[in-house]
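Issue 218. Parser rejects a valid record. Input:
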Amino acid sequence: MKRLKTLLPFNYFHYYAFSILIALISYQNLLFCGLYLLFYYLIRNYQHKIKVILVGVSFFIFLLVFDKVEKPKPHGNLFIVVAKSERDGYYRYFVREKRTKYLLCSNEEYQVGDLLEIAFELKEFKTERRPASFNERNYYYSLKIYYQLKALKITKVGERFVLSKIKASLLNYFKSYPPLTKGYIEALLLAENDFSGDFKKSLSLMGISHLFALSGMHLNFFIVLLERLFKGSNKKEVIILVILTIYVIVLGFPISLLRAYLSYLFLMMFKEDGISSLDALSLAFMVLLINPYRCYHTSFILTFLVSFFIIVAGKGFLKTAIVAFLVSLPFLSNFNGGILIISLPFSLLISYLFPIFIFPLTLVSVIPYCSYLSEPLFSSLNNFIAFFQGGLFIKFPYFKLYAISLYLVVIVFVLLAQEKEKMIRRGGYLVLFLLLAYFYPYYNFQGYLYFLDVGQGDATFISRPFNQANILIDANEGTYQFLKTRGEIEIDYFFITHGDLDHCRDAVKILSEFKVANLYLNAYDDSLIVNELEHFNLKRTKDDVFYCGDVLIEVLGPCKDYHNVNDNSLVLRLEIDDKSYLFTGDSSQRRERDLLSYREKLRSDYLHVGHHGSNDATTLDFLKMVNPAYAIISSGVNNYRHPHPEVLERLNAFGVEIMALKETQTITIKKYRFPNFKAGFVIQNSNFSV
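Output the parser choked on:
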């Protein structure tokens, strides 16, 4: 220990942590490497500044190597269940072979500690299917889970003791408690968020999710209680550390709790050497990055960011609560698609009530008979929170990594003001930043065309520079979530080629949440969804020409009723930036024969292949007339074997470059092409806990 103390650079750990942080964000986007020049200038008076930079560069190299290292695969077929959670219609398990965990989903119920013999196929996780969507791969990698077991047969062959069985037993014990009380106990004491979906949404919208998930604030509450309990003991700190260590181990090392525990541990270990709170936090940051994929986990990002800014801001309830909210704001906006105006004052109110009412009530509720008394109080609190979620909601475009970085720099600039009046004046820059973010679609010079990966279905979105045109063609499930990342936009034209659900599953949700100027369906569609669309000023079209900004849209029928929902699909040809795009919906060969009468009008650079690549479409004659350079096939996991080999053979015979969305995922075509860097952080679809 003495040797370690002589090596540790106390009061300068944050330099090394910042160097590693720059390496992390540079790995996401190489442009951030330029921050090392600024950072070197800021620490120019530190005698070991070269060492600090080398630590960051070494970590960057470590990231490059770590990402390429082959992840451990199972060696046998015996696995122990170490975690269990219930989902809609199935169970999600984390199973372990030796020290490596894997994901297992099954309709059968097993218990933590069960030893399972599994015949399986190994499945890799996917990256985000659409821009700014859930990145399954990064999320599970952050939990050190690299593969999913697709079970062919599962046999329980025994039971084993695992530490996580203690937590499972506690969760099982509280199952008999009233539902709301059980939810609070599990979330605030056992790090198992079991709130209902609607209440989780309310917490997120109001910006208070971090208060209702076990984190550093709750650990500090426990520490205060333990310090008072063992006040007279000369081994107080050792006893507290032992209790906290057992607590963190039993709960399975939740990230935000682990951050707080490690920070407290380092403060106690090196208290005599004068280690600061900032350096203890920095040391915890570096230790947890032994698994660098943790940087993709929402809890990891927020718990360190908020803790850092609270330390910089200094003490004071009001200042701490405001800073925590402001730092979380872009992440909350990304998660919800925007923010509620009332969320800041409401967050301050709940932050004030939490330590004096909500958390103590949760602790008391552990006593069996008290739980029935606390249930109506928790019910009133839930209703109170849900009541305010219907306020004014402001939509923001998705905050990318560079925008979040700039926003955090502005917060630092505000906090560096010494006087309160000066701090308030500088706060105007935060308001200006948010205004610029809100109006970003109106001054963004880039144009985009997205062939969205929405599984076995279709969705295409066109956005022109300076918000001059927004066009949506079809909307299978997932389209609405994508549009939420676009901010406060109006959809000028929404074309639904036909009424099959895989082309319009999200249509009503989109029409309810977004301004849509023109909604079009083919003239002969009588699908069930028509009745719902009629409420949104549905129009019919069959042979029209539209101009939207600089986009030309030609409707190529149908000009007669084929008495078939697929052949009645709208066929659209768009001209964008000197390129042409042909969309045929689910048209079959019969419809394609009639389309040949348009002759030269069919010529297109990009063909959105009909009926997801089914062999009842995309004939040789049709391909010869269209003469595309690229073919987009929108299909997902399906029982129809789409795309069919015959279609692929025809496309290959014509020398067409094939892009299948289920393999490439979303395809983005930009007006202006710049060098591509790695994508920034994608906020996971999980609960915030700071």
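Fixed in the parser; the record now loads. Confidence is low (pLDDT under 50) at residues 682-690.
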